[in-house]
């Protein structure tokens, strides 16, 4: 193949876990340190998660190679087992003899307990490592927790490391597994390699294969990181395919174009999925931008508009009495079509118009309304020409409704005046109801704003350093009670905590807000949404 063409002593990008090619980045060494800490003298559970191909299994093998000589380890690679099958596999790994034909859960559990006690008496630590643990059934995880109940005054007799994909974290958030989640003494999520770490990873593997020159140019390295997203396993596939393609093309150096062609061969559906995800994000961003543009344009256009048509509010009554109020920017006169039942209107800018229909014979009247800016609410005057005139201040949405009183006017029947007054009273009632609803809405807004100023400058948990996040203990918030007088409480890890209470030596509850809680951990303050499980 290409080994002789590029003067290599070995194929540097095989996906098999060869210890000679072990590359420990800063995050890999940090993950190993967390697992080692979790296996301290107290024991319990340790958790390592990460995406497919990030090097979780490699770290577990490195951990096993560094175990003390007084440690007996069991490594389970196929966790798709029932509770009974898991216990039987553990017995096989620990060299425990049992009758397979008569094996039951109780028999296997007793055998394992005897082995754990015997190892402890001989100063031997017992370790169980389960890879691909996201496939474990909840009842199997619960059985593992029951095994760890065997302990002395100072340590657990069985130490367990769970290694799996991010789905394992979601599995452990189940309510029926909260007791197990609380026993996890160390957890670490392994992130993909950065661009710099990926370049170091490629150069390291080439150096182990005795490569004396650069086989990938800068453009090729950048494209490899983009396509592999920093995942070592995908990087191996891409590099191997790119070197093979360069060999077939008689190219001494791999360039960006060669990497793109090799990606189609090596990744296939994964490459298509990455493109689809990218295109989907781009399409969503475009649609969101267009939607925001039209929303802002509509808001701007609505603000520019003024009411140019009368807004008529019809109030049904026995004799069809109608009251309507409107505003107009231009002066105009409207004459009724039916002289027996309609009233002529005289309109001008910012005038309130009143229209009255009645079945009683009424002479043609002109109802004039003076400009609202000049008169005060409730003023009613009689003019010498017998016209009824009503004046009021310009409506204000944040003020109380204006109470109008109608008095006798020359040439206007008592029945018409009574209907007119009833319509005004009903309109005032509607205004009061609307004002009350607006006040209630504002009260709800004020309630939601409670504590907003108190979170200024407080980081959410996701913005804390990875070191602090990994050191943070398990938190199970089951109840969140807010009180404006500072007497609220939260139920976390099965106990009620008030403002100022310590969850442990390093973790304190600072503030309980309506929809979140503010905590302090090792001198760093952060916020968590209410009823969060960590």
Task: Describe this structure as you would to a colleague.
This protein has 534 residues and is of the alpha/beta class. The chain folds into 4 domains: 26-190, 3-Layer(aba) Sandwich (Rossmann fold), CATH 3.40.50; 195-267, Orthogonal Bundle (Helicase, Ruva Protein, domain 3), CATH 1.10.8; 333-446, no CATH class; 453-529, no CATH class. Helices cover 37% and strands 15% of the residues. It has 14 helices and 17 strands. It has helices spanning 26-38, 56-65, 83-93, 105-121, 138-147, 167-171, 178-181, 195-208, 218-228, 232-248, 256-266, 269-304, 414-448, 466-471; strands at residues 44-50, 71-76, 125-130, 158-164, 184-190, 333-334, 344-346, 366-369, 380-382, 388-390, 459-460, 477-481, 489-492, 495-498, 507-512, 516-521, 524-529. The strands form 4 sheets. The chain has a 5-stranded parallel sheet, sandwiched between helices. A 5-stranded mixed sheet has the order 6-7-8-10-9, with no helix packed on it. The two termini are 50 Å apart. This is AAA family ATPase. InterPro entries: AAA+_ATPase, AAA_22, ExeA_AAA_ATPase_DNA-bind, GspB_C, P-loop_NTPase. The chain crosses the membrane at residues 281-301. Keywords: Membrane, Transmembrane, Transmembrane helix. GO terms for molecular function: ATP hydrolysis activity.
């Amino acid at each position: 193949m290409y080994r002789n063409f590029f003067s290599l002593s070995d194929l540097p990008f095989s996906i098999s876990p060869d210890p000679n090619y072990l590359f420990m980045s800063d995050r890999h060494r940090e993950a190993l340190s967390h697992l080692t800490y979790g296996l301290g003298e107290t024991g319990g559970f340790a958790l390592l998660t990460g995406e497919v191909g990030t090097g979780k299994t490699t770290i577990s093998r490195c951990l096993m190679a560094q175990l003390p000589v007084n440690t007996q380890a069991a490594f389970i690679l196929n966790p798709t087992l029932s509770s009974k099958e898991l216990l039987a596999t553990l017995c096989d790994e620990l060299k425990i003899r049992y009758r397979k034909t008569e094996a039951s859960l109780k028999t296997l559990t007793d055998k394992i307990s005897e082995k754990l006690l015997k190892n402890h008496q001989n100063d031997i630590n017992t370790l169980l490592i389960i890879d691909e643990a996201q496939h474990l059934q909840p009842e199997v995880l619960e059985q593992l927790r029951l095994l760890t109940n065997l302990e002395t005054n100072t340590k657990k007799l069985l130490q367990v490391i769970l290694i799996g994909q991010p789905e394992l974290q979601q599995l452990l958030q189940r309510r029926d597994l909260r007791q197990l989640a609380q026993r996890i003494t160390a957890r670490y999520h392994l992130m993909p390699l950065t661009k710099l770490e990926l370049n170091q990873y490629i150069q390291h593997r080439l150096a182990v294969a005795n490569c004396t020159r650069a086989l990938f140019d800068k453009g090729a390295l950048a494209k490899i990181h983009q396509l592999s997203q920093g995942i070592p396993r995908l990087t191996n596939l891409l590099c191997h395919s790119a070197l093979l393609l360069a060999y077939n093309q008689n190219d001494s150096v791999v360039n960006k174009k060669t990497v793109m062609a090799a990606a189609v061969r090596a990744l296939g559906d994964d490459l298509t999925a990455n493109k689809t995800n990218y295109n989907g994000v781009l399409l969503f961003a475009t649609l969101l931008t267009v939607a925001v543009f039209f929303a802002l344009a509509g808001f701007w256009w609505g603000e520019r508009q003024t009411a140019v048509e009368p807004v008529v509010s019809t109030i049904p009554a026995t004799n069809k009495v109608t009251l309507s109020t409107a505003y107009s920017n231009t002066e105009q006169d409207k004459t009724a079509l039916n002289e027996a039942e309609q009233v002529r209107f005289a309109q001008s800018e910012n005038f309130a118009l009143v229209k009255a229909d009645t079945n009683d014979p009424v002479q043609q009247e002109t109802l004039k309304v003076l400009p609202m800016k000049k008169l005060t609410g409730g003023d009613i005057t009689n003019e010498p020409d017998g016209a009824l005139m009503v004046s009021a201040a310009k409506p204000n949405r944040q003020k109380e409704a204006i109470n109008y009183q109608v008095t006798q006017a020359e040439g206007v029947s008592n029945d018409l005046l009574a209907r007119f007054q009833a319509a005004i009273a009903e309109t005032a009632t509607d205004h009061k109801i609307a004002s009350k609803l607006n006040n209630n809405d504002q009260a709800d807004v004020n309630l939601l704003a409670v504590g907003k100023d108190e979170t200024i400058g407080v980081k959410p948990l996701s913005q804390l350093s990875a070191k602090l996040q990994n050191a943070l203990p398990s938190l199970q918030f089951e109840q969140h009670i807010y009180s404006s007088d500072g007497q609220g409480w939260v139920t976390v890890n099965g106990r009620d905590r008030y403002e100022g209470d310590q969850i442990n030596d390093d973790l304190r509850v600072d503030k309980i807000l309506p929809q979140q809680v503010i905590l302090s951990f090792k001198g760093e303050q952060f916020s968590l949404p209410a009823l969060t499980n960590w």
